[in-house]
Design brief:
With about 400 residues, this protein is of the alpha+beta class. The chain has 13 helices and eleven strands. The protein has two domains: about 180 residues, no CATH class; about 180 residues, no CATH class. The strands form two sheets. The chain has a nine-stranded mixed sheet, sandwiched between helices.
């Protein structure tokens, strides 16, 4: 009988020990992959959102910082206005390379004139824009024209329809941005010209008029010159222009990042406690099971089995069961995260992006190896003690 068959037979003969190791490994691996997917995915999501916005500083009306962050983070509609003269004032500051204004709008809830309710809409100035321009240059040679828009990753055309209706106006969806895992994925972007056309059309086509106050903008996106400290420019804006707040990209989603750090610490403590308890339980159960098998192991040693063969057999049993448990845990928790992603986002109030299949495979492999090493260490001490015992002594006990 080869070593693998011996390991399988011993696993079948020690059902209680095998199930304890299986469930401990399943819980350890599953919890680890879940934490990695949610916390790691949330951090990646915030990073991608900041990159997508493409600005070093965002200037918004004073007191609107939280609304702006929540709009880009969760896709919650936001309406805010400040004088458009802010753009020219900021453009004159030393160190500023480009300034581009934007409108923040939203569709209506429960209105037949809007295909999608409560969608966050962003209108931009194509003459000065530098945030959407890289994507548009790559995918649309002529950029967006009147009546055209690009959507976030999850924005799509309704079934059997060629257009998305906004305040009664048909909008042609020309493409989708790459996923960020944030509210940007559920937002729509079009030009100032299209926004004003929608507002004008809403006078007769919509259940409620879309108002864009004359001489107003919602935000100003700022890019500083290479080598210039954005913080110094932000300070100048804060001290010079009343009624506005400059938000540096490095400080964007600061409250969410602080929340994630706190959540990560709490989860790390829970994971450490869970891991330690699981390893102690595995070690105890393994030790008890091997004590009951001392006579059997003593007979094997007397029949010529080497200490190394016995040790390999004992460790192989634990590692094989742990492998099955860890694989099951990774698969189960990963599927649960994918299926209940939106519910998790609502509970934690933080979006997260799911990894690509290849990246997920790397995470799974890393978690699997970590669990196997941990279980191997927990089982090593009792396995060594039994395998090194004198055969005659083992058979008498």
């Amino acid at each position: 009988m080869n070593l693998f068959k011996v390991i399988i037979r011993n696993i079948e003969g020690s059902a209680f020990r095998s199930w304890v190791i299986f469930f401990c490994a399943e819980l350890m691996a599953g919890f680890l992959i879940a934490v990695t997917l949610v916390i790691g995915g949330a951090q990646d999501s915030l990073r991608l959102a900041i990159q997508r916005l493409g600005a070093d500083i965002i200037v918004v009306p004073q007191g609107s910082e939280a609304k702006m962050e929540n709009a880009f983070l969760m896709g919650a509609p936001a309406r805010m206005w400040m004088p458009e003269g802010v753009v020219e004032t900021v453009r004159s500051f030393p160190g500023v390379e480009a300034v581009s204004p934007q409108f923040f709008l939203s569709t209506l809830r429960g209105a037949s004139c809007c295909t999608v309710p409560d969608m966050f809409l962003v209108a931009y100035d194509p003459q000065t824009d530098f945030t959407l321009k890289p994507w548009l240059t790559e995918h649309l040679d002529d950029g967006l024209r009147l009546g055209e828009a690009v959507g976030g990753y999850f924005v799509y055309l309704p079934a059997d329809q060629e257009y998305i209706q906004i305040y009664g106006t048909d909008i042609d969806l020309k493409g989708n941005l790459a996923s960020t895992g944030t509210g940007i994925d559920q937002s729509m972007f079009f030009t100032f010209e299209t926004a004003r056309a929608i507002a004008e059309g809403s006078l007769t086509k919509a259940e409620r008029v879309l108002e864009i106050p004359s001489g107003s903008i919602s935000a100003a996106m700022i890019k500083v010159r290479p080598g210039v400290d954005p913080h110094l420019v932000a300070q100048t804006i804060q001290e010079t222009i009343p009624g506005v707040t400059p938000v540096e990209s490095t400080n964007l989603f600061r409250s969410q990042q602080t929340y994630l750090v706190g959540l990560l610490r709490s989860v790390a403590i829970i994971t450490g406690i869970l891991w330690a308890l699981s390893l102690v339980l595995i070690g105890l159960v393994y030790s008890m099971a091997l004590n009951e098998r001392q006579r059997e192991i003593g007979v094997l040693r007397a029949l010529g089995s080497t200490r190394l063969t016995v040790l390999r057999s004992l460790l192989g049993e634990g590692l094989l069961v742990a492998f099955a448990g860890a694989a099951a845990g990774i698969a189960l928790f990963t599927v649960a995260i994918y299926l209940f992603r939106h519910a998790i986002i609502q509970v934690l109030h933080t979006p997260f992006i799911l990894p690509a299949p290849l990246e997920l495979a790397g995470m799974a492999l890393g978690g699997l190896l970590l669990v196997l090493v941990s279980v191997g260490v927990a089982a090593l001490v009792p396995a060594l003690r039994i395998s090194l015992m004198d055969p005659a002594v083992a058979m008498r006990e």
